[in-house]
Amino acid sequence: MAxxxxxxxxxxxxxxxxxxxxxxxxxxxxxxxxxxxxxxxxPGAVGFNWQTxxxxxxxxxxxxxxxFEQLLGAAGITPxxxxxxYGDNNNWFAAYGFWLFKIYGHKDVRLMNGGRIKWLxxxxxxxxxxxxxxxxxxxRASGPxxxxxxxxxxxxxxxxxxxxxxxxxRSPDEFTGKVIAPPGMTETAQRGxxxPGAKxxxxxxxxxxxxTFKSADELRAIYLDKNAVxxxxxxxxxxxxxxxxxxxxxxxxxxxxxxxVKNYDGSWTEYGSIVGAPIEK
Amino acid sequence: xxxxxxxxxxIFELLPTEQNPTxxxxxxxLNPMPGFPLYAKLEWMNxxxxxxxxxxxxxxRDLEERGLLTEGRGLVEPTSGNTGISLAALARARGHRxxxxxxxxxxxxxxxxLKIVGADLEVISDELCPAPGLGDGSINLAKTHAKASxxxxxxxxxxxxxxxxxAHYTTTGPEIWRxxxxxxxxxxxxxxxxxxxxxxxxxxxEKNPDVKIIAVxxxxxxxxxxxxxxxxxxxxxxxxxxxxxxxxxxxFRLAYTRAVELCRHEGLLAGPSSGLIFEGALExxxxxxxxxxxxxxxxxxxxxxxxxxxxxPELGAGLQP
Lengths: 281, 321
Ligand SMILES: Cc1ncc(COP(=O)(O)O)c(C=O)c1O
Description:
heterodimer; A: alpha/beta; Oxidized Rhodanese, domain 1; five-stranded parallel β-sheet; four-stranded parallel β-sheet; B: alpha/beta; Rossmann fold; 2 domains; six-stranded mixed β-sheet; 9 helices; 10 strands; binds pyridoxal-5'-phosphate
């Protein structure tokens, strides 16, 4: 598939259609707009709500290992299943889910290329409002694999462009501080701008006109040649709350095969609120 | 139908036709070029208050004729408000339901109006971070309903349905041709679904290939409900570049200032998309100096008071004792 380093983590909509209802294949939809799943989803898919099910409801954090085990158990998923994630907005939160699945050691998780919009616009693909009947499982997770995640203390020790590549994947207006967050967002920061030394490469540069990922050659040209991401260094991606950066994290780690890529999920809502932290506009 | 008595058996008979056109009114104060009169076509004189009555009626009749509105199945449509208001009012008056999928940035007045005329309302968040391949959130959600629940919903899809263009080809175009007695030289329109521009331009160009079609668009990041700028035009499958001579891009805030000027100096209670069209027309009358212009004014100002206060703060001042 388009010469990706790890083609096994991506499936096409046609593949999903052919594997609907097959044993060992589980579909999960994760959207920004939580109305979308109820309005219609791929037959057999369960829906995860990123706000209430993928975030710890008390402190600001990803869900704990126990909560992850409960979530997957209730969704009828076992550690040996092939899990296909898809969602709206070009798989933003599906990619975030993918990152979370990897943190807790799920072996075979994949993204559906093009997300729910590609499926929606293909005439041979069905949607349903029917919620699947689930037989719960006892899911056992491993990890957490913290090599996939950057926390603030570690970030503050980095010297971008020397010790690491730092990739800001937000829109140009957020990068330059013209806006603190896209309009209407409740999670914001105290200040606008970006982390000094970060390269502004909007997440959307990784997808083509139909919403699917660009080829490995195109991606290499964008990230490595044009923007000088050094593949020999650690790479950290961030955005506003860690969902768009999961998308770029996926591209860099799995499609381009860079070997040390992390998601800084605290992202701008954390960094842009730190007293005394340096900011560039 | 005898429109001279102005007595009708039902509201549908008021819908505009060549024999019963919406009015054309000449501008008398704000047009600096005496050799280039400008006429406003007052689309808010449609029975449900906007140009979208034309498309809504054509879409609804088409679904009825094709037998697609059956017991238990209503319509679902993405709309910035006007299509929804027209479609809901028409549909309810004929015994059908409408689910209107509306972007959050649509003004409060329109959302409430939709409920008043009996639409079911689903409001969705505005676009977060522009990206290729995403299309428009309200269109996608409406399509999802139509695809997942075909027993409940049929989607006319004003962005792709040729009936939207046909409505203007059979009414707006012939009305303007007759009202100007064939003298029109310039047509000024805005672009939303592009039904208005494509249908009207096609008719007028067949009558006179020299009629200039001028489309006026708001700048990116705009707040002019109903309209799309160049970057957003991809969703309008009805746009035909061959039918447009000039596309003018106008700072969207001028839509609001010009609308208020039309209200204050011409007695024309024009809404923001009309204000934008007027600004584009001013540019062209100065450039071309001679002509006979028709501006299609899609709706009036009443639905936009909350947006107006945002863009013209003076209007919000002094409202409390
Ligand atoms: C206020 C307003 N102006 C202009 C338009 C554009 O008309 P059309 O969709 O025919 O391009 C619309 C359409 O939705 C509208 O609601």
